[in-house]
Structure prediction request, 208 residues.
Amino acid sequence: MKLQFAMDTLTTEAALELAAAAAPHVDILELGTPLIKSAGLSAVTAIKEAHPDKIVFADLKTMDAGELEADMTFAAGADLVTVLGTAGDSTIVGAVTAAKKHGKGVVVDLIGVADKPKRAKEVVALGAEFVEMHAGLDEQAEEGFTFSTLLRDGEASGVPFSVAGGINVSTIVAVQQSGAQVAVAGGAIYGADDVGAAAAELRAAITD
Ligand SMILES: O=C(CO)[C@H](O)[C@H](O)COP(=O)(O)O
Prediction:
């Protein structure tokens, strides 16, 4: 299982610092949505130039203009971009068209989708590389939030999936056991006093 580090910070400088500390222990460096909104696509280019050996993931959360948004982000250096599962099929197909042009991939983020296994199958049939079983930061803070639903939905989907939703060192093993291809961790790494050690600890808890 791959480990993805979601850098939910606001400046390119902070992201470069986080990436430098965590890179030896992670496979995928994610530029979080707030970072891209704050710093722009130049942040994507900066991370790819600093870490050409890593998969650079731009969490665009595209809802419309799929081909345009994906095309300009791949041109900036991203290897993977996200489109929302709640977007129309034509938006997902547009992003997939741009991905094929660049030899890159589209991940569909199922945040806010009620029937995640059903939508997962649909979007992979449309050309998505994999789906993200995702409970966002707001949902994680809601009363009654349960992480295990994401794992059940992933298993039920029958397609390649990642999991994101506050993963930490005590939950990452269950993520791997669910059959996920990728575990996404944000706060558990960037919120730690020692970012490199936190990433290393997550890496040590899983197998390739
Ligand atoms: O995309 C996101 C929020 O929309 C986060 O990057 C994702 O949820 C991972 O961060 P965390 O592990 O802190 O939940």
About this structure: DSSP finds eleven helices and eight strands in the chain.
